[in-house]
Amino acid sequence: MRDGTEVDDPRFGRLELFDPDSRGWQIRSVLDDPGANLRSAAGRYFIPGPTLDQDQEGQCVSEAIHDARNGSPDRTKPTVTAFEERQRVYHALQHLDPWGGCYQGPRCQIEPSPAAYDGTAVLTGGMYGIERGWWDEVRWIGAGSGRLEDDLIDTHRTIGGIIYGIPWLEGMYETTPSGLVEVTGTKVGGHAIHGWEWAPRQRMRHHWVGTKPGVWCHNSWGPGYGIKRRGVSGCGFVPLDDLLGLLERDGEGMVPLCRN
Fold this sequence. Notes:
alpha+beta, eight-stranded antiparallel beta sheet, about 20% helix, globular
């Protein structure tokens, strides 16, 4: 990858880009201000759009922002964005990020580069969404607030979904039959994924006694990943403690927002 990361699976296309200025855009200021006049781009109560499949392309950031855009209120049929369009957006994102070049390398008609690279940054996806009018601004959980856990929970509970850019570990390639994402093993890359539902008391009889809090995420690896949740395939449950651990390992959570 362009950032020097070596991965065996090209689907891991989340590149780290921690811009000091953007990290000042805290979600906490929205959470603490009843008059902020901002809402989730997809709404607080929504179902994910159709399960996307990025195939073997490093366009997970494009997939995640499309999933956030495609979500809709319950009982409303979500929109469908074709693979070719999502790939076109991925290509556009690579020409917006600060690294130069793209996955097409010397074949690119926009900006040919000697070597091709995969991936882009979650921040770039957020900025593209603003440019296209999909949302008005983006905010970040944890950034500057020192309250990562509170920001995560309060955002999911009161605003809506979060686009996560996180390290991906070996044990996360598949979920268990019940949909649990097992956060185990060594790091195999970086991935962008849309967390769309907060579950404060999730039961999984074969994994723990009682309940645990966590987030249901919608992946972009087609219907073969995870399980169906509310009629939508491609979902996996990440326990809160595990998700916080991933975020603390150079992860990030971006919240797309629209003005009321």
